[in-house]
Structure formats: C-alpha cells, structure tokens
Design a protein that fits this description.
InterPro entries: PEX11. The protein is an all-alpha fold and 262 residues long. Helices cover 73% and strands 0% of the residues.
C-alpha cells in the first residue's frame, strides 16, 4: 500500500498561491542544500524508499533473475523490509487529513461530500496503516494483519476516488481561469498595452495545471495498486509487473512534486 504525495497542511489538494499575487523570481539554490531540505521532510525520505522498493519489485516481477539465485532472495528480503519501513513514516500522518478538513472552505455541498470522501478515506488509511506496521513489527498479533490490510486498501481506494474527483474539478476551474487570462492578454495586445504580469500569471497557471494533471495520474496509479490489494491481484492490469510499474510511476511523480515544493 502506498500513500499519495502530500503537503504538510493539505495532503490531497495542492494549494497554490492566488493568481493575482505578483511572482517573485526564484533564486538559484545550491544543489546539496536542496537535497538536505528534501531529505529533512518525511515525504522526501518516504518517496526515495518507494522508488527503491518498486525498482526492486519490477526486477522481481520481470523474472529477469532466476528464483534460485541468492540475489533474488536478497532482493525479496530488501523489498519486504523497505515496505515495513515505509509504514513507520505514516505514524500520526492521519492528523494531516483531519486538519485539512478543518481548514477547508467548501464552495458547495458537492465539494463538502467529495472532501469528506477524499480526506476521510486517506485519513482512515493512514490510521489503519499504523496498526499494520505494529502487526508486521511483532508488537500486536499478526492474525489481525489480513483484515487490517483489507480495511486499509478499501479506505485508500475510496480516498483516491474522492481525490481524483476533486482534482478534476480543480482542473476545470484552472482551465476557465486560463481561458479568461488568455482573453485578457489578447485584448491588451490589440490595445497596445504591455501585459507582462498577465503573461507571468498565465505561465504560473500552466505550471499549476501540469502539476495537477500529474497529481491525477499519480492518484490513478495509486488507486490501481489499492484495487490490486482489494482483489488480491486478481484482474486485468493487476498483475505484479503492472502494479510495480504503476508504483514506480507514482513514486517518480511524487518525488518530483516534493522536490519542487521544498
């Protein structure tokens, strides 16, 4: 089970600055300082572990190595160990979803319902994952692991359905803003006015739209993995290799998002 890439305050929705604020040019950051800032974040380390895990799963699922090879057994052990380690990073993470719901402003009842599904599903997923980690670590009886994993998978899947729905609504709003801004720029150009600020806002809006689309792709990949857990890998596109590739895609997108945000 893998979680979404998330910000500290709003794990499901990327909150961007209002478009009417002037943009400040970004200063060139020292690479090592950037790496340090990235690794200081819980999600930064988690996503690197996620890449490591799914790279290993791809190798194992592709049958590139013989089953009898010592390296194959070591890779299986490594993949399992990383999977358990990642669950430790979810301790207390459900609080993010609680706060996100508390701090959200809902424009309509539909937004309220979708937010409850998205944040509620993800919050329940993170909450249950804590007990799965305790079971896998041996602190509580492992006989509960199976039922806990099913609850976790369903909560995660439902959360992604809500999250994707919200992000499609956001994309529609962004497209409308983009259309209005392009119209304003065209009018300004015909009048001979400078519109540098509007062009910068349009550029930011395009970047925001791209990141939102990537976020939808990431959520879809993670939802596919959650569905595989629900169905125990039984179904089209739910085989080990397909799920491993989906996990790697999700990991790369979330790593990029976290890198850009820190």
């Amino acid at each position: 089970m893998d979680s979404k890439a998330s910000t500290t305050a709003t794990p499901l929705l990327n909150q961007e600055k209002p478009n009417n604020l002037p943009s400040n040019p970004k200063k060139e950051r020292d690479f090592l300082n950037h790496v340090e800032a990235y690794l200081a974040k819980r999600d930064g380390v988690d996503k690197l572990l996620k890449i490591s895990r799914y790279a290993t799963k791809i190798i194992l699922a592709s049958s590139a190595l013989p089953e009898t090879l010592t390296l194959t057994h070591r890779l299986k052990s490594f993949e399992s160990s990383v999977g358990v380690s990642r669950k430790a990073f979810r301790l207390g993470k459900f609080v993010q979803d609680v706060n996100a719901l508390r701090n959200s402003n809902f424009d309509s009842n539909e937004d309220l319902v979708l937010s409850l599904i998205a944040y509620g599903g993800e919050g329940l997923y993170f909450f249950v994952e804590q007990f799965i980690w305790l079971a896998k670590s041996g602190l509580i009886d492992s006989k509960h692991s199976r039922s806990l994993q099913k609850i976790s998978a369903w909560a995660e899947f439902i959360g992604y359905v809500g999250s994707i729905s919200l992000k499609f609504r956001d994309l529609n709003r962004i497209s409308e803003d983009e259309k209005c801004l392009k119209s304003s720029i065209e009018i300004a150009i015909t009048r001979g006015n400078k519109c540098q600020e509007e062009k910068e806002r349009l550029c930011k809006l395009c970047e925001k739209k791209l990141m939102k689309r990537l976020s939808v792709v990431q959520d879809a990949a993670d939802a596919l993995m959650a569905l595989a857990d629900i169905r125990d890998g039984d179904g089209p596109f739910l085989g080990p290799l397909s799920i491993s590739l989906a996990g790697m895609l999700s990991a790369l997108i979330s790593t990029h998002k976290n890198w850009m945000s820190c």
